[in-house]
Description:
With 269 residues, this protein is an alpha/beta fold. Helices cover 26% and strands 27% of the residues. Strands 6-7-8-3-9-10 form a 6-stranded mixed β-sheet, sandwiched between helices.
Amino acid sequence: MTAVKFDNVTLAIAGRNILSGVSLAIEAQEFVGLLGPNGAGKTTLLRAIMGLVPAASGRISVFGDAAARGNPAIGYMPQLRGNTDALRLNGRDFVASVVNGHRLGLPILSRAARADVERVLDLVEAQDLAKRPLLEMSGGERQRLLLAQALIGSPRLLLLDEPLISLDPKRQRAVVALVKRVQSALAIPVVFSSHELNPLLGTLDKVMYLGNGHAAIGSVSEVVTGPVLSRLYGAPITVVCLGGKIFVLSGEYEVEGDAHRHEHDHAAV
Ligand SMILES: Nc1ncnc2c1ncn2[C@@H]1O[C@H](COP(=O)(O)OP(=O)(O)OP(=O)(O)O)[C@@H](O)[C@H]1O
């Protein structure tokens, strides 16, 4: 069954069009990379799938129904943020804090909910983090627990907002491999937003590339080309393949990834 369908969708925030006339489909078990420069609309598109940004025109459907807030079929992993109250929790309580929609309220858990918490800790290979406070964890370890939170309640679609931000290349590859293992175990579609394509190469089934208010959707070889990206960046772009990697260049500068790259290279997964 098609997980997500956009029919000629325009998304606007505060009267400004962020994306115009986008049509796309995300099919069962697809691993979809959502790419694009800063401000291209990646988070907005994910929020639209969750029913948090209504379509200004066109239609968004999720598993055949109109996109709606609070859809239990969707698991969402937000961008990593520090300095929250959650940092004092241990890994298990942090994961449990989203059960029944309670954030940080530490609800009293039913037996089934407790079992769900252990299930997702196993899935993301984080039993070793269950008793440790988040305060002492690396960025990568916290990422794993955020992924576990997103898997509570057995969603049928997983949306991940920039899980690779602030990780170095080795740890980025480890996160992608973990998400792929989780996806294979659960057999659900995943939308993985990222500034960088290379860590996702070899794992992606499909790319959705946003830019300049538009989207291009297809295989890497269909989308990541000079002509397509020049349209999306609104500037002449050259795509160079070298040593199994793809470099997206504007003149002599690499345009992809630089903005957020490796702010905290020490973060471990
Ligand atoms: N609440 C808001 N009010 C006004 N403008 C907003 C709001 N949220 C997002 N925008 C604007 O919408 C555009 C798309 O933002 P969005 O966060 O979706 O981009 P993104 O591709 O996820 O960016 P990044 O890679 O920097 O996270 C940006 O220009 C942003 O400034």
